[in-house]
Amino acid sequence: MTTLPRPRSTSSSRSTFSPSPSPITPRTLPTSHSDGTFPTHVWGNLVESAHTGGVIGPEEKRIEVADGVSLHTLHWGTPAVEADRPAFLLVHGLASNARLWDGVASQLAAAGFHAISVDLRGHGQSDKPDRGYDFATITNDLLAVIEHEGLDRPVVAGQSWGGNLVIELAWSAPERVRGVCAVDGGMIELGTHMPSWNACADALRPPDLVGMRTSRMEGFIRSAHPNWPEAGIQGAMANFHQRDDGTIAPWLTLDRHMKILRSLWEHRPTSLYEEIVVPVMLAPADTGQNPSWTSDKREAIETAERLLPNSRTHWFAPADHDLHAQHPDRLAQHLIDAIADGFFSPYTEDN
């Protein structure tokens, strides 16, 4: 059985990063079958026949992580028996979903790795309980996925809020992971830059997009991200449920969104860095559009690099916050290289 993360120590005054409020990118979801699975055509050229020698996947699976709560997961490739080929567990950000990782997961599978992306509770096709949106519960959800699938210390990558989650996971359960990758996340400390929760809630409260036309959403997302690959566009669209009347509604409801935002506002990853014994890859994005914002982020990354015992950083510039959707090939290659060169070495008591 998994256990709750141990109490953390308080943080001293260290450089932190808080993302500036930005427009929420609207997203839609292709129509699914009655059992919640997607028709094969929605995967585009990512799903190929085994007879073509192409990438096979994803396989959809539901995994029970707590009493009455199951998560929707996507499985790419096949489990490897070689010790030098760990599995990858891919974790999305706030109000996002597993399909934003499609491009990265397909590249990892093509390279012979097993990759699993997960819809976190309240998101996508996963169950949506009213409780359990704190860091302890959600990291335990991830540990339950690892345990259920028998993953031997996978590399866990998370984007944005997911980046903070994987930092928490690396700190609380180092014996369960080989290493983590924080994708434009892992250094977010909203409470440091916005001492008042009410101010944070007002600044980062998502817009009400319920009932917007699906076509309008899709048009917006394509115009906002003209250089994204189609897999990224489809992944972004999957953040929304496409309803029979031609409108959308976010999978993550407003009340659950705000519960997660509150937990993120309270999170202090800098208080954890020095105690993390597994390797940490940082993959921050620089949009190139806000020098002050970029300066704050660079300072936060430098703090993480100084405090983390074993880290490496790959900047993506220019790049969007969802760089895993925008640049999947490059991010996947960094992950693969980190296996090949020994950065993500198996965990031992000595490392």
How would you explain this protein's 3D organization?
The chain is of the alpha/beta class and 351 residues long. It has one domain: Rossmann fold, CATH 3.40.50.1820. It is built from 11 helices and 10 strands. The strands form 2 sheets. An 8-stranded mixed β-sheet has the order 1-2-4-3-5-6-9-10. Strands 7-8 form a two-stranded antiparallel sheet. α1 (102-110) packs across α11 (328-340), α2 (135-148) crosses α3 and α5 (197-204) crosses α8. The longest helix is centred in the C-terminal third of the chain and has 17 residues, at 291-307. The chain is globular and about 50 Å long. The two termini are 25 Å apart. Mean pLDDT is 86; it is low at 1-53.
User: Got a strand count?
Assistant: 10
Helix and strand composition category? alpha/beta
How many helices? The count is: 11
Succession of helices and strands? EEEHEHEHEHHHHEEHEHEHH
User: How much β-strand is present in the residues?
Assistant: 5-15%
Radius of gyration: 19 Å
Helix content: 25-40%
